[in-house]
Amino acid sequence: MAAITLIEAVTQALAYEMANDGAVLVLGEDVGVNGGVFRATAGLQQRFGDQRVIDTPLDETTIAGLTVGLSLQGMKPVAEAQFDGFVYPMLDQLICHAARMRNRTRGRLTCPLVLRVPWGGGIRAPEHHSEANEAMFTNVPGLRVVLPSSPQRAYGLLLAAIRDPDPVIFFEPKRIYRQYKEEVPDDGEALPLDVCYVLRDGIDVTLVTWGAQVKECLEAAEKLESDGISAEVIDVATLRPLDFATIAESVARTGRCVIVHEAPRTGGFGAEIAARLAEQSMFDLVAPVERVTGWDTHIPLFRLEMKYLPSVERICAAARRTMERS
């Protein structure tokens, strides 16, 4: 079994599901002939034809509307937004129609669609190409929000997202698209949605994160271990609905929590996790919750980009503060 990258795992999952379910189709800007801007759909049009891998106009509003319409007619469309900053014209269709369809029809209709969104910074891209805007979707009832952090989880969670009867926003951290490889069996085995993954056990502090920041948190845990601090690392993976029980169980053991995300601090999804800890886990905490986040600015271009993103050093410093304040 060959090791593959995260982007190759996305391609593999799409190909598997298209081969085994004729209702699955892919659409978006340049997804067909060119195989997508990141080559996530490379080779799919040649294999499945241009009726199932559809190049659309450069019009995100139309893409979203087509996706909702196709899902209501028995198809399982997987649409691509080329970049995270391009999703804003899609919000009307996603929020006002896809997310409400089950409730609007009292369960008679659902919208089994996936919107794939290359997400986050770290690739030295221009404005609109490096945003971490997941929090705005977690506030919408009826949407699932999924954010994998490895090739294995990208494959399994994308299969689960396509098979889900309701709309899923599937953010793909493009900074780690080709950063490392894992062996990923092409066996069609989906991973469960709506659960957090404990990637490393620890007893002193819980690091909670998602997406590309999982790598930094695992590296921080290694560094903290050399200082005698045992850090547990949790990959949230599905932000909505949130598996808070796994986070709460970890914090009950460690007594401390550091939440890490690259989105701006104010209104970020980390604030939701911190609020739930305050409501439900107050008496388990022996130190205030720390957040390590992006800054409350638009992500700066090029030279300052990596200064904006949470670093191993910032994560370690936050973890040490929780140890000092207990």
TrEMBL record:
Keywords: Oxidoreductase, Thiamine pyrophosphate. The keyword Oxidoreductase applies. It is an enzyme of class 1 (oxidoreductase). Its cofactor is thiamine diphosphate. GO terms for molecular function: branched-chain 2-oxo acid dehydrogenase activity. CDD domains: TPP_PYR_E1-PDHc-beta_like. Residues 4-179 form the Transketolase-like pyrimidine-binding domain. Its EC number is 1.2.4.4. The keyword Oxidoreductase applies. GO terms for biological process: branched-chain amino acid catabolic process; response to nutrient. It holds the Pfam family Transketolase_C. It comes from the Bacteria. The branched-chain alpha-keto dehydrogenase complex catalyzes the overall conversion of alpha-keto acids to acyl-CoA and CO(2). It contains multiple copies of three enzymatic components: branched-chain alpha-keto acid decarboxylase (E1), lipoamide acyltransferase (E2) and lipoamide dehydrogenase (E3). This is 2-oxoisovalerate dehydrogenase subunit beta. It comes from Pseudomarimonas arenosa.
